[in-house]
Amino acid sequence: MPHMIWKGAISFGLVHVPVQLYPATQSEKVGFNLLDKRSMDPIGYKQINKNTGKEVTRDNIVRGFEYEKGKYVVMTDAEIRAANPESTQTVDILAFVDAPEISFLSLDTPYYLAPDRKGEKVYALLRDALKDTGKVGIASVVLHNKQHLAALIPVGPALALNTLRWGDEVRDFDQFKFPDEDTKKAGVTPKELEMAKRLIDDMSDTWDPAKYHDTFKDDIMALVDKKVKQGKVAEVMKIDEGGEEKASADILDLSELLKRSLKKGGAPTRRGAKAAPSDDDTGDESGEETARPARKTTRRKRA
């Protein structure tokens, strides 16, 4: 059972749903410690003055907000604590919106809300009402002394609370140069669009996260196990960095690339996946290829 973050209530109108908040995810990333290779002792860090290079003691360190380049307003810990929002232990629903209206770009960190203090019935009522209406709740919540905007989302048997990025935290499209949304102005032909749709249809599948896994982590853990079994727990092994050849992405003809992809039934989406055969032959009637991908050798880097 994961560690509970806090217990409180979901509040909307006059209804209060007692809940407990738990993290919905867990980190499975591969982590490394920095070591002195001569003794295998851990390497630490020092806080130094960037101008003088000298170490600074903790009692000489303050927090400052840079309001202009090189100019700061110093804030004490007490001032920062006073500016923090009061923790109310409630998920205050501000509005209900259609779920598709929330962009993936706004999603931040997910949590689970579990019913508390015999609140199962009202919990189920809110969950099922959200499912039936296709709505999610937009809420305000304080977590770790910081105010968050969040979405209350029904997920299977659970209510999830997904913190959201504030509007000014997501960059505007106009900061980048994207192709025109008008297909013709973007230079895409109807034939290319149709082939792309067919390729997407050929590669369509149901979402199952169990089908995908972190192959880098698998390789690292296999190497760790190998070193442990060989007793090489404090030695550096020489690794063969030779890798498989991969086709270059430099294809001159987009239509030709789509034709090849359709012939293969789509590129494999994961290690060990097979390409499904295509019933249609969309190749050139002459049997000649208009563009051939260049090949280059890439090296697979291992830790």
From TrEMBL:
One of its GO terms (biological process) is DNA recombination. Transmembrane segments: none annotated. Residues 278-288 have a biased composition (Acidic residues). Residues 262-303 are annotated as: Disordered. CDD domains: KU_like. Gene3D superfamilies: 2.40.290.10. Residues 293-303 have a biased composition (Basic residues). It holds the Pfam family Ku. It comes from the Bacteria. Keywords: DNA damage, DNA recombination, DNA repair, DNA-binding. Coiled coil: none annotated. Residues 53-181 form the Ku domain. The keyword DNA-binding applies. Homodimer. Interacts with LigD. With LigD forms a non-homologous end joining (NHEJ) DNA repair enzyme, which repairs dsDNA breaks with reduced fidelity. Binds linear dsDNA with 5'- and 3'- overhangs but not closed circular dsDNA nor ssDNA. Recruits and stimulates the ligase activity of LigD. Belongs to the prokaryotic Ku family. HAMAP family: Prokaryotic_Ku. This is Non-homologous end joining protein Ku. It comes from Caballeronia novacaledonica. The gene is ku.
